[in-house]
Design goal:
Length: about 150
């Protein structure tokens, strides 16, 4: 059965600064997901305000935008069966204190305000975030062409 669900994963400025890009990629690849888009960019405040529009009224919003625009981000699109839900499990809880060892946040992070990685929380959010960050910049090939992939 072919399942091409996609999720948006972004390594935040503190994750880039700490050099964990390769570890994140490794974990998603070893899990069995396929990387179909990746770029490093220094996001504009406008892009970030659109990305986090649902948090606009929250008191931490200005600090979030300042933090996310403080350095480069690695934006990625991963594809595979259950990519959104499994990706969220792999990231761990938003608050690193609640993240289990073995998750990305559980292994690499201690501060909720600098929690090193973002992952889409639903298929709908993933589709919106992918369209916002990547437009038409994705590699299109299907894992269905390879019998040995799942």
């Amino acid at each position: 059965m072919c399942n091409e669900e996609r999720t948006f994963i972004a390594i935040k400025p503190d994750g880039v600064q700490r050099g964990i890009i390769g570890e994140v990629i490794k974990r998603f690849e070893v899990k069995g997901f396929k990387l179909v888009g990746m770029k490093m960019l220094w996001p504009s405040e406008e892009l970030l305000q659109e990305h986090y529009i649902d948090l606009k009224e929250r008191p931490f919003f200005p600090g979030l935008i300042k933090y996310m625009s403080s350095g480069p981000v690695v934006a990625m699109v991963w594809e595979g069966k259950g990519a959104v839900k499994t990706g969220r499990v792999m990231l761990g809880a938003t608050n690193p204190a609640d993240s289990l060892p073995g998750t990305i946040r559980g292994d690499f992070c201690i501060d909720v305000s600098k929690n090193i990685i973002h992952g889409s929380d639903s298929v709908e959010s993933a589709n919106k975030e992918i369209a916002l960050w990547f437009k038409d910049d994705l590699v299109s090939y299907t894992s269905c062409a390879f019998d040995w992939l799942y």
